[in-house]
């Protein structure tokens, strides 16, 4: 049984307060602790909750190497699956896209709850980092001065605790307090709505193929993303704002069989649906990702729809840059990383947003109800398997090697 270190007494001052114990916040915290920099991570949920919360599972190779260089990929490298190809299904046929043969690169599949479990154990139990779970009413103060602070209500006493710091890392997601604390007029938020929904499903069932499947069907997109030999993530295109109750077990599996159906393909294996929710496909980008002494990372700064499986990878990219930049300033008085942080992050953010838009048309164009769009979408799909140049360009963006870190 793993040892769990508890720090009941919060410090009154630390160099960095990290708000949010997701992949971005825990990676920043681990980078700081490895450099001997003290910090405090604040999380509104319990440790058990964040270690079980179902989220993404596809991690790009450059991101895994970044974790490995920082001593954070031990379990991942031992347990994660390697994916070297994906498969498109359209016009009743199967088309295998072997991206490793084109690039020499692959994807890793490692469910985010396992990654978070690894990161929180390394931060709190191994590196002795301070973390408070279950905090309430987090507030940020004096972000434009050189002595900012963060306050929160202690879950045990109900009293408000105040922690002074030099910097705040905002890693608490799209609906977190740090994003809401941006000074009015100091940041521009660009938004995009795809006008579609995805029914996100998690099934206790083995995948029907050894890779990710993309079903581009006239009745809507369907996707299969293997998570483990026993659990599979599925997506079904649906109207935005649809009610999951409109999708009983029988309808879900009938639509998956139809939209993923192709000559010679095994049908999806049915199993109990342990998660069922509707995601409205939209993106946003906050620019710049900095306001005074507040530095945003991950979904607190930008959201990319799960169309291209880029969200977790962007969060890790932000965390690598922010953690390294904070260490450089706090241990070496080098502010160049912090000064260039937002600009460096946004280069990859916008690259991934553009690819997500392009891929959305590939997935959903055949179901748009427009025969012209359907025809051009099928032309794009066929080109991936007839043009080496088109295939190479897609593989580069799909694997995240187009934007360099």
Structure overview:
The chain is an alpha+beta fold. The protein contains 13 helices and 20 strands. The chain has helices spanning 23-34, 47-50, 61-69, 74-79, 99-103, 112-126, 177-180, 249-259, 311-332, 336-339, 341-364, 371-384, 388-398; strands at 16-19, 39-43, 58-60, 81-83, 86-90, 93-97, 107-109, 130-133, 136-141, 149-153, 160-164, 167-170, 188-204, 212-217, 220-226, 232-238, 272-287, 290-291, 294-296, 302-303. The strands form four sheets. Strands 6-5-14-15-16-13-17-20 form an eight-stranded mixed β-sheet. The protein has a six-stranded mixed β-sheet with strand order 8-2-1-12-19-18. A three-stranded antiparallel β-sheet has the order 3-7-4. Helix 1 links the parallel strand 1 (16-19) and strand 2. Helix 1 (23-34) runs parallel beside helix 6, helix 1 (23-34) runs parallel beside helix 9 and helix 11 (341-364) packs across helix 12 (371-384). It is globular, with a radius of gyration of 22 Å. The chain starts with 15 loop residues before the first strand and ends in a 7-residue tail after the last helix. Residues 1-8 have low confidence and may be disordered.
Number of helices: 13
- Give, in spatial order, the strands making up the sheet with the most strands: 6-5-14-15-16-13-17-20
Strand content: 25-35%
Radius of gyration equals 22 Å
Form type: globular
Give the class from helix and strand content and strand pairing: alpha+beta
């Amino acid at each position: 049984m793993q040892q769990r270190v508890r720090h009941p007494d919060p410090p009154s001052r630390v160099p960095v307060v990290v708000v949010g114990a997701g992949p971005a916040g825990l990676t920043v915290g681990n980078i700081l602790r490895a450099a001997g920099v003290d910090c405090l991570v604040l999380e509104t949920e319990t440790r058990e909750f964040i270690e079980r919360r179902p989220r993404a599972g596809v991690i790009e190779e450059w991101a895994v190497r970044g974790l490995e260089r920082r001593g954070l990929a031990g379990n991942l490298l031992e347990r994660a699956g390697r994916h070297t190809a994906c498969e498109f299904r359209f016009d009743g046929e199967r088309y295998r896209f072997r991206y490793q043969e084109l690039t020499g690169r692959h994807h890793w599949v490692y469910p985010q709850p396992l990654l978070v479990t690894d990161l929180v154990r390394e931060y709190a139990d191994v590196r002795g980092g301070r973390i408070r779970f279950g905090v309430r009413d987090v507030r940020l103060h004096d972000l434009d001065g050189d002595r900012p602070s963060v306050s929160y209500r202690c879950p045990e006493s109900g009293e408000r605790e105040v922690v002074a710091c030099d910097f705040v890392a905002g890693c608490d997601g799209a609906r977190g307090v740090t994003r809401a604390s941006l000074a009015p007029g100091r940041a521009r938020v660009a938004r995009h709505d795809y006008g579609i929904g995805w029914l996100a499903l998690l099934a206790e069932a083995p995948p029907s193929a050894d890779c990710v499947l993309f079903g581009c069907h006239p009745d809507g997109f369907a996707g299969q993303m293997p998570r483990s030999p026993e659990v599979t993530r599925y997506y079904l295109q649906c109207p935005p704002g649809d009610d999951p109750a409109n999708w009983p077990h029988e309808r879900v599996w009938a639509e998956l069989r139809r939209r993923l159906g192709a000559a010679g393909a095994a049908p999806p294996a049915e199993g109990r649906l342990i998660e069922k929710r509707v995601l409205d496909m939209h993106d946003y980008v906050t620019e710049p990702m900095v306001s005074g002494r507040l530095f945003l990372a991950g979904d607190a700064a930008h959201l990319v729809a799960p169309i291209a499986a880029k969200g977790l990878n962007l969060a890790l990219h932000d965390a690598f840059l922010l953690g390294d930049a904070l260490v450089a300033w706090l241990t070496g008085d080098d502010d160049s990383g912090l000064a260039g942080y937002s600009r460096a992050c946004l280069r990859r953010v916008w690259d991934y947003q553009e690819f997500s838009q392009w891929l959305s048309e590939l997935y959903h164009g055949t179901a748009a109800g427009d025969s012209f769009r359907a025809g051009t979408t099928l032309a794009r799909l066929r080109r991936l398997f007839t043009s080496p140049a088109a295939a190479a360009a897609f593989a580069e963006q799909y694997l995240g090697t187009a934007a360099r870190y």
